[in-house]
Design brief:
By secondary structure, the chain is α/β, with parallel strands linked by helices. It is built from eleven helices and 29 strands.
Length: 419
C-alpha cells in the first residue's frame, strides 16, 4: 500500500450493513442474522467484509445491526474487540436505537446510515465506504478508494461481472468506456449488458464510496422525502446516476488473489444450495477461495480448542476424512468422511458415513448415521442410524430439502422425528 492509499484508508470510515435476515437461508436464520451465519469451518460471513476493511488499512468501522442481532453482536464483541481508541481505531455496533426519532427499525439501507449521522460526524472521516455484511470475497478497498478520488466521482459503486441471464437478481449498471454509470436499475427483467459484451452484465456488490460531507447532505434530503424508500440501490444511487457523476469500479481491479486462486472470487451464499456449495467447494484440491493466504488473513473470533482428533482403526470403524476440512475440537470417532466441512467441536461417532456434510459447531452425529449432501445447524444431535440423502421423498417430508437436493437439518426437525 502506497503512502497515498494508506492516507485514504486512514481517512475513511467503513459502514457495514449487517441487519438483514437472509430469509432464503430458511431455518439457518431463524435465530441469527445472515451476516452471523457460520462459514468455512471457523468464521462467520461478516468476517470477510470486516477483514477486507482491516487488511485495507481502514480502522474506523461501524456495523449496523437489526434482525435477531444477539449472535452477531456477541461475535463482534468477542472477535473484533482489538481496536484501540488511542490509535484512532474503533468498531461501533449500531443497532436501531431511536436516536434520530421514535422509529424502532431501520427503514432501508440509506436510513440505517441516516440514523447514525451523529456518530459518523463525531469521527469526521473524509470518506465513507458502505459495505454489505453478507458476501464472501477478498477485496482491497484502498484500490477502490484511490479510483474514487482519481475519478472525482460523487459515488463509486463496486460491481461484479455476472452472466446477463443471472443479472435480474441484482442492481445492474449500464456504463460507458470510462466506467461512468449511465443507468442503474434494481433487478431488471432485461438487464443492460457490458460495453462490447452482450452476454455479461455489471451487478452491484452493495459497495459504495462517498465523500462524507456529500453523503450526509444526500441522506438528510432523502430522509425528508415522503416518496423515498430510503434505500441506496433504489433512491440514492439512481439519483446520482441521473446527475451524471456516478462511476463503477469492477471487482476484478481490486480483488485479492493468492498464487492458488485463478480468478476473482465473490459469492452471495444467500440460499441453502449456495451456502452448501460454497462450503463444500473449500474441500477441493485447489479451491477457488484460498483461506490459507497469510498475506490477507480472514480475522475472526478464535476459540480455544484442542486439535481435531481421529480415533479407531478397525474394519468398518476407522476415523478417516478424505477431501475434507476439520476444525479444532472435532472428534472423528470411527466415522468415515468424504468432502465434508466440520465446524468447531463436531463429534462424528462410530460407523457413521458422511458425504458432502456441512456441520455447524457442536453437532453430534450418532452411530451408524448415513448423511449425504446436508447442512446441519449448530448443536444438532443426529440420532443413531438416521439416513438422509438417499430417499428424496422421505427427506422432503422430514427436513428442509432444497431445489438441488440439499437437506437442512435443525434440532426442531429432529425433535419432531422423535416425538
Amino acid at each position: 500500500m502506497t503512502v497515498s492509499t494508506h492516507r485514504l484508508a486512514r481517512e475513511t470510515m467503513a459502514f457495514v450493513l449487517a441487519g438483514g435476515r437472509g430469509s432464503r437461508l430458511k431455518e439457518l436464520t431463524d435465530i441469527r442474522a445472515k451476516p452471523a451465519v457460520y462459514f468455512g469451518g471457523k468464521t462467520r460471513i461478516i468476517d470477510f467484509a470486516l477483514s477486507n476493511a482491516v487488511n485495507s488499512g481502514i480502522r474506523r468501522i461501524g456495523v449496523a445491526t437489526q434482525y435477531k442481532a444477539h449472535s452477531l453482536i456477541r461475535h463482534l464483541q468477542r472477535g473484533w474487540s482489538f481496536f484501540r481508541a488511542e490509535r484512532n481505531e474503533s468498531l461501533d455496533i449500531l443497532p436501531a436505537s431511536q436516536r434520530v426519532n421514535e422509529r424502532n427499525w431501520y427503514l432501508g439501507t440509506a436510513d440505517a446510515v441516516t440514523q447514525n449521522i451523529d456518530i459518523i460526524e463525531g469521527y469526521a472521516p473524509k470518506y465513507i465506504l458502505i459495505l454489505a455484511g453478507d458476501h464472501i470475497y477478498k477485496q482491497d478497498y484502498s484500490v477502490l478508494l484511490e479510483h474514487h478520488v482519481a475519478s472525482g466521482a460523487d459515488v463509486t459503486v463496486g460491481c461484479i461481472e455476472v452472466p446477463r441471464q443471472e443479472a435480474s437478481a441484482f442492481g445492474v449498471m449500464a456504463v460507458d468506456d470510462s466506467d461512468r454509470i449511465l443507468e442503474f436499475v434494481e433487478k431488471p427483467e432485461n438487464p443492460p449488458h457490458m460495453p462490447g459484451d452482450e452476454t455479461r452484465a455489471l451487478a452491484s456488490m452493495g459497495i459504495y464510496v462517498f465523500e462524507t460531507e456529500l453523503l450526509i447532505k444526500l441522506l438528510r434530503e432523502d430522509a425528508n422525502s415522503e416518496t423515498s424508500e430510503h434505500d441506496f440501490g433504489k433512491d440514492i444511487i439512481p439519483a446520482l446516476v441521473k446527475a451524471g457523476n456516478a462511476f463503477a469500479h469492477p471487482f476484478s481491479r481490486s480483488c485479492v488473489t493468492s498464487s492458488e486462486e485463478q480468478k476473482p472470487y465473490w459469492r452471495d451464499v444467500g440460499t441453502i444450495d449456495a451456502f452448501w456449495q460454497a462450503n463444500i467447494d473449500l474441500t477441493d484440491f485447489q479451491p477457488e477461495l484460498d483461506l490459507y493466504d497469510q498475506t490477507w488473513p480472514i480475522w475472526t473470533y478464535s476459540e480455544l480448542t484442542p486439535p481435531a482428533k481421529f480415533i479407531h482403526d478397525e474394519e468398518d470403524r476407522r476415523g478417516i476424512a478424505v477431501s475434507s476440512m476439520i476444525a479444532g475440537g472435532c472428534i472423528i470417532s470411527g466415522s468415515q468422511l468424504s468432502q465434508c466441512l466440520m465446524h468447531t467441536g463436531v463429534r462424528a461417532n462410530s460407523y457413521s458415513e458422511l458425504t458432502g456434510v456441512v456441520a455447524l459447531p457442536d453437532v453430534q452425529i450418532g452411530r451408524r448415521a448415513r448423511l449425504k449432501n446436508v447442512v446441519v445447524d449448530r448443536s444438532v444431535r443426529i440420532p443413531e442410524g438416521l439416513v438422509v440423502g438417499e430417499d428424496p421423498k422421505q427427506d422432503a417430508a422430514r427436513f428442509r430439502r432444497s431445489e438441488n437436493g440439499v437437506c437442512l437439518i435443525t434440532q426442531d426437525m429432529i425433535d419432531k422425528l422423535e416425538a
